Amino acid sequence: MNIIVNGKPYTSNASTLFELKEELQIPSDVTILNGFQISENFDLKEGDLVTLIQKGKMPSQDELESMMCARHTPNVHNKVKEAKVAIAGLGGLGSNIAVLLARTGVGTLLLVDFDVVEPSNLNRQSYYISHLGLPKTEALKQQIQQINPFIQVKTEQIRVTEENAYSLFKEYPIVCEAFDNPVSKAVLVNTLLEQSPQTKLVCGSGMAGYGSSNTIQTVRKMKHLYVCGDGSTAAEVGNGLMAPRVTVCAAHQANMVLRLILGIEEV
Amino acid sequence: MKLNGTIYHLEQPVILLDLLNEYGFQTQRIAVEMNGAIIPKATYHQVTVTDDDTLEVVSFVGGG
Fold this sequence. Notes:
By secondary structure, chain A is α/β, with parallel strands linked by helices.
């Protein structure tokens, strides 16, 4: 029987998982079969993906990638790895979207932001004290390398304008709008919808404060325009942005991106 | 005329920019689709809306 063990093709005489482990003599604490961690025995079939992980042991570089993606649903991972996604704005939405997409295994990420990390960012954005003063593009790239070193991260430390938006994002079929300023949000959306009609946009609007999580939704507003948020709760004097609700919205955006990567256009 | 899913009756054709102002939209914070096509912001003052048109106006609020 031909199966894949820790990312490599393997021909086995075993008909069950336990027989395979006996045959291989690989010590393992974690067993993952076709994206799901199991402890009981299981019949093997042709083409199965088996991952055997020993806790506390650093795997070789080529084994690491297969172990990291072992919990992804089979056939999903290949599409996700081929995908290219751009994130415009690396604040509370963008930094969290980038981390989620990195954990999901999106193969190529473009990170765009003009700003550096400062102390008031840390209440909701995915940065650490050690990042203070660093460009957000660089601080996030460092984190992603620690989360998944197999992801190709490109960065542009620049302010997005009507003039540069098309050339910045034209290579990316999916763009996340993650700005703070509502005028900047509208400029990016209008510019790309006008100049790059095939680009799919996933935006955030309305996630300040600590209102119910359940008012945050993903809505398909136009053929290629998705908006996540409650649509109305602006960040303003007396109503700041807080980690839980901003992160809920970021997760909505990241999940919509994942769905689009997999060819699902409904919200 | 349908605006964001609600039907309104237009007595006569109106300029899009005037209609947006009348309904209280902040034109720097929106994107407008008319009959399925995006309307470039630079043409809001030239586009005419009639009673047969369908408009989708997406407004953005601050925060991110």
